[in-house]
Amino acid sequence: MTDTNIVWLLLQPSHLLAYTAVLGVALWRRPLGRRLLVAAATLLIVLGVLPTAWLLMTPLEQRFPIPADPGRVDGIIVLAGAESARLSKVYAQPLLNSSGDRLTTFLMLARRFPGARLVHSGDTEPASQSAAARALLLGVGIDPARIVFETKSRDTCGSPPATRELVKPDPAERWLLVTSAHHMPRSVACYRAAGWDVTPYPTDFRQGPRPFLFRVTDNLADVDDAAHEWVGLLYYRLRGFTNDLFPRPR
């Protein structure tokens, strides 16, 4: 886990809500403690009950549509993040997390386009997402000669150069990029900045056409994920890692 990820883990909205509530309980005899409890209750309503998650997540998820007919496909890239790496290591079997749709979509596309080259991109240390993905993908019958596992990149913008080094794509080739729909804008921005115009194939949708009210835990998780992407888009742009703050479909 990178330092940036650690900072975000501490500062994500649901954790800030929890810190506020705990501090309020600890100081409840004082006016400050009561104000903190009121603030925590207000945050819980705003983030967990009201359609805040839907408002934050929908622009990200709907930015790039699912291609109805991708046409000729020369390669398919799936970004790591669907694997429960530590539990996979503990139980010696490939286990997926809430983003498991990335790999199921990848498998369906691999079957749909049997001539396409396949790439699983990204990894973490010490628990390996790549190892869990390898066990699953090869275990369901993917030809080992057809797929490569890129294990050098540790963040989204590290994926394009590391993957390009492995597969050396021709400029005329068409490559699909599979990742969670809310993560697609940042992923596309990174690939375009690297000069690789991939075709987005979003999956792992979290929000529908209407907001989910009163689904507190789901909404809090979606607020965290959406806020992470919005902050990530801004951070990558300010650092010069990408050329577009919020890339458009082409």
Produce a short descriptive summary.
This protein has 250 residues and is α/β, with parallel strands linked by helices. The protein is built from ten helices and five strands.
Quick tags:
250 residues, alpha/beta, Rossmann fold, 2 domains, five-stranded parallel β-sheet, 10 helices
Topology:
Blueprint: H1 3-11, H2 13-26, H3 31-49, H4 52-61, E1 75-79, H5 85-91, H6 101-112, E2 117-121, H7 129-139, E3 147-150, H8 159-167, E4 175-180, H9 184-193, E5 199-203, H10 216-238
Parallel strand pairs: 1-2, 1-4, 2-3, 4-5
Helix pairs in contact: 2-3, 3-10, 4-10, 5-7, 9-10
SSE pattern: HHHHEHHEHEHEHEH
Can you tell me the CATH class of the largest domain?
A: Alpha Beta
What is the molecular shape? globular
Q: Segments where pLDDT lies below 50 for 5+ residues? A: none
The chain-level structural class is alpha/beta
**Mean pLDDT across residues:** 94
CATH fold name of the largest domain: Rossmann fold
- Across the major sheet, the strand order is 3-2-1-4-5
CATH level 4 superfamily of the largest domain:
HUPs
- Strand portion: 5-15%
Number of strands: 5
Q: Kindly, what is the distance between the CA atoms of the first and last residues, rounded to a whole number of angstroms? A: 33 Å
The number of helical runs is: 10
- Compute the number of structural domains: 2
Tell me the major beta sheet: 5 strands, parallel
Helix content: 40-55%
Known CATH architecture of the largest domain: 3-Layer(aba) Sandwich
Q: Give the radius of gyration.
A: 20 Å
